[in-house]
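Weekly structure sync, notes
Attendees: PL (lead), two postdocs, one rotation student
Agenda item 3: pending single-chain targets
PL asked that the sequence for the first pending target be pasted directly into the notes so everyone works from the same version. It is reproduced below exactly as submitted, 125 residues in total.
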Amino acid sequence: MGPDRGLLEHGRVNASETYQELSVDEVIALYPREWVLMRVTEDDDDGFPAKGLVLAHSPRRDDISDALEREPPRAELPPDAPPRPYYIFRAFPRIRADSNDPRYAEAVHRFVDQLRDALRARGRR
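Predicted structure, written out during the meeting:
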């Protein structure tokens, strides 16, 4: 799955080059609307991935699955190696539950309107 299919893999090109740790928000800004494979290095206070190393990104979800399959399985790592959790996500802006953020209120209103419309449509069937 090479560049002709839209997959861009990140990693070491030579021994002196390393991955760059990025926040999930930074990744979303860098690769909008793409699928991302990230090795998680830090969680937020709620236990969700906050930072990590981008291993691959692509507009195609299948490319990310292929990239994950090429990662070494846990059994091939040294016994004392730390866990390597992965996070696969679509890079869309996140809206946080902040009552002071007008985007949050708009998103809640839009959701409620769509839910109400769906329930009404379902009742008509």
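Discussion points:
- DSSP finds three helices and five strands in the chain.
- The helical segments are 24-30, 61-69, 102-123.
Action: rotation student to compare against the earlier draft before next sync.
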